Amino acid sequence: MHACAPPDAVVWPRAVGQVQELAALCYRCRVPMVPFGTGTGLEGGVNAVQGGVCFDLSRMDAVAELSLEDFSVAVEPGVTRKALNSRLRGTGLWFPVDPGADASLCGMAATGASGTNAVRYGTMRPNVLNLRVVLPDGRLLHTAGAGRQARKRAAGYDLTSLFVGSEGTLGFLTQATLRLHPLPEAVAATVATFPSVRAAVACTVQVLQAAVPVARIEFLDEVMADACGRYSGTGLPVAPTLLLELHGSRQGLAEQQRQAEEMVRLNGGSVPAWSEEPEERGRLWAMRHSAWYAALALRPGCQGYSTDVCVPISRLPDVVVETQRDLRDSGLTGPMVGHVGDGNFHCLLVFDARDPAEAQRVHAFAQRLGRRALAAGGTCTGEHGVGLGKRALLREELGPEGLDTLRRIKAALDPHNLMNPGKVL
């Protein structure tokens, strides 16, 4: 959906001082700058639409300031979530934000990412304690103060939250201090199937309303369940499906399972046995994380576009059902999958890029989906970000005053519009 736009040059700094020197040089020469982590973003955020210099930060891969007592760690942009959790193995701690891709943690902060565990552990925003930012002119900013990692603060404006989700438009995130979490004592996962999409999504709402402390509750419509089952060889039933995972103590887990099973049955669903073995759970979530490739396999040789929205939980059943109807009426292949525990879902649209009419239908559908979410009191993107594709929807979401405020912040930090120009605003 986003045409390739390569930069004029690429640099690979290895230290924050080099980022500062290169940024200062580009600033003096008025050359656009585009930050790059691992390139797993989905809204064209690393496209150099005005040329310039791409700063590939993947070689800055230090893990510093690990404090087991304070549940915190500082990582540079080259550190991915899998690499960090591998480093943490044996400590009893982990970093749970999991968008699926093995993304750069600083990149995840830049896009405000979340994922399958967000319903229990939150998105990137509450899990970032401090950021080391190189500003467009090369100056260095610590958003919560140098070396600070307090778990809460009420001192001044929240600069950390300003840069989380800024998508590289305000500066380079060269280090993120992250909140770590204790590994749960016991984990259990299961697959529940339902007679309809509405029943599956209504079950999600009821599980949350009943305060069942789920760690993951993922939705697959029947098309996605069939595609994932065939692609991974797990043989999922062709039905609307929820993947549930519970974290807790061994004693508490049994009660959580009983509550979850009751909600599933109330909505006409069936629950097979719970899996507590790491290997079984690993296969389940590997299947879920392969959803993108499973969707592409529905139409070999075609292109995919993943779009997401997030709506209030109370509106989720209606919005999901309306979206599925829209897909049918539009004649599009778009299996649906989502982190429905926090109202966030995705359509994985598979289309023939050589067919301009189909590509236009995909674009029109994505715009309707965004506006449907806005009409329901939600947002045009829960985790992918705005990038190139959702700038018009952002205007509708925030209104003229909100957008003007964003522009004023951008102008104050980047007066020459050099940081990732053409994105978000």
Automatic annotation (TrEMBL):
> Which cofactors?
FAD
- Keywords in alphabetical order, please: FAD, Flavoprotein, Mitochondrion, Oxidoreductase, Transit peptide
The molecular function GO annotations come to: D-lactate dehydrogenase (cytochrome) activity; D-lactate dehydrogenase (NAD+) activity; FAD binding
- The EC number(s) given in the record are 1.1.2.4
Annotated Gene Ontology cellular component terms: mitochondrion
Its family? Answer: Belongs to the FAD-binding oxidoreductase/transferase type 4 family.
Protein name (Swiss-Prot/TrEMBL): Probable D-lactate dehydrogenase, mitochondrial
Q: Which organism is it from?
A: Falco tinnunculus
* Lineage of producing organism: Eukaryota, Metazoa, Chordata, Craniata, Vertebrata
